[in-house]
Amino acid sequence: MLTFTVRRLVLAVPTLLFISLVLFLLLEFAPGDPMAQVPLTVPPEVKEKMREALGLGQPAHIRFWKWLVQFFWIEPQVLVDHIFGTSFSAGDLRVISWQTRSPVMDIVIQRIPQTLWVVGTAYVVGVLIALPIGIYSAYRQYSWFDQTGTFVSMIGFSVPPFFSGVLVIVVFSVNLGWFPSIYDTTHKVVDWDSFMIQLRQMIMPVMVLALQITAQISRFMRASMLDNLNQDYVRTARAKGLGERAVVLVHVLRNSMIPVVTVIALGVPSIFGGAIITEQVFKVNGIGQLLIGAIQANDLPMVQTLTFIFAVLIVLFNLIADVLYGLLDPRIRYD
């Protein structure tokens, strides 16, 4: 397993380099100009100097190489300097946002806690709810619980977050007045009272995201459990006198989790991207809203860095899913 993990990590390097090149070329040929939002009163020669200051006057391959050096070499040095108090990156040019003229990674690090508060909590809540629902729905197939779960899952799949988000705002914020309609990103948790305020403003966006996560994972869990409940080893385990709890929660559940692990692992990066709409609806000042603002402002360094971070998450959680396969099923060996 260790050899497989090392081999996959080494293979991830050229994969990520290729992804970064594709992202750069897509953004390079995409329509839009960072000078489009400059007032028309600015003379053309001034605009040209501004373009040169942003590095747009250089050839594409030079700009791509500079971004690679800045992201893979200088930014890790900045992190080391921040942790250990060294000065390896002193004087080096970092990836700079065209919109704010600030280092891109500094802005991303500022926004990540807001996204993790909402998206991370929603994903954990969604998984913890979805797994028991899927297990019990499969064990009690066609019962009222199974039919209710199927109905709720269909709603979760069908209703987009821009509709469900507005709906919960109208019901729970406007009509009932239980929760705030706008997420206060400046709020800091310092004591129990401030934690309760944070919890109240998280409930609605977490509810919207968790509904989609629960609907997806519970259906996968149910289908996987049904497939394994009819296998010969289940009948053999029951014939040997094993208790029903041991048969379902040990033997069937462990084998059923193998395909579900893929859905859970690969769902982590996708939920970060899917939370963009939810962050817009509830005004959560997180990664999703940052990406939308960067796209609207043609801030290519910010867009390229954020999309590449999403790609890194996908590659990383693909590896985590493969490693978990071997832990869940001893028959799987990566030799």
Quick overview of this protein structure:
With 335 residues, this protein is mainly alpha-helical. It has 11 helices and no strands. The chain has helices spanning 2-29, 44-53, 60-84, 104-139, 144-158, 161-175, 192-229, 232-239, 244-282, 287-296, 300-328.
Averaged pLDDT: 79
Global morphology: globular
Q: Cα distance, first to last residue? A: 8 Å
Provide a count of the helices.
Answer: 11
Are there runs of 5+ residues with pLDDT below 50, and where? Answer: none
Q: Could you tell me the radius of gyration in angstroms? A: 24 Å
**Mind describing the biggest β-sheet?**
none
The percent of residues in helical segments reads over 70%
User: What is the number of strand segments?
Assistant: 0
Report the order of strands and helices: HHHHHHHHHHH
Structural class, by secondary structure, is mainly alpha
* DSSP strand content: under 5%
Structural summary, described in words:
It comes from Pseudodonghicola xiamenensis. Keywords: Cell membrane, Membrane, Transmembrane, Transmembrane helix, Transport. Belongs to the binding-protein-dependent transport system permease family. The protein contains eleven helices and no strands. Helix 4 packs across helix 7 (192-229). It has 335 residues and is mainly α. The radius of gyration is 24 Å and the shape is globular. Among the domains are: 43-97, no CATH class; 110-257 and 275-286, no CATH class.
Fill in the keyword field for this structure:
MetI-like_sf, 335 residues, single chain, BPD_transp_1_N, globular, MetI-like, 11 helices, cell membrane, transport, mainly alpha
